[in-house]
Amino acid sequence: QVQLVESGGALVQPGGSLTLSCVASGFTFDRYYLSWYRQGPGQERVLVAGITAAGAVPNYLKSVEGRFTISRSNGDRKVYLQMDNLHPEDTAVYYCSVDVSRRYWGQGTQVTVSS
Known about the structure:
By secondary structure, the chain is mainly beta. It contains no helices and 10 strands.
């Protein structure tokens, strides 16, 4: 079955950096578009960035453009989210996701940006 496991969330000060990782199993990883979403306190879950099977990135959430970078390693079955210059409003649970017949989600990893 499809499984997604995120890691890398932490408490970080404003202006700091984090790299989130998601390891996937249960599907042909190098054929699928992968995404990172986030859900802040009291907010809806929103798409942060997606990456095609070939590594192209169509778009980022406007508020993270220029600060976040999504990437993937098909050989390792991992997708990453490099987050730089973090702002307090980036505080959220971050989820890795893939649509394989239906949408699957990881358990999420908490990112807290606070001084």
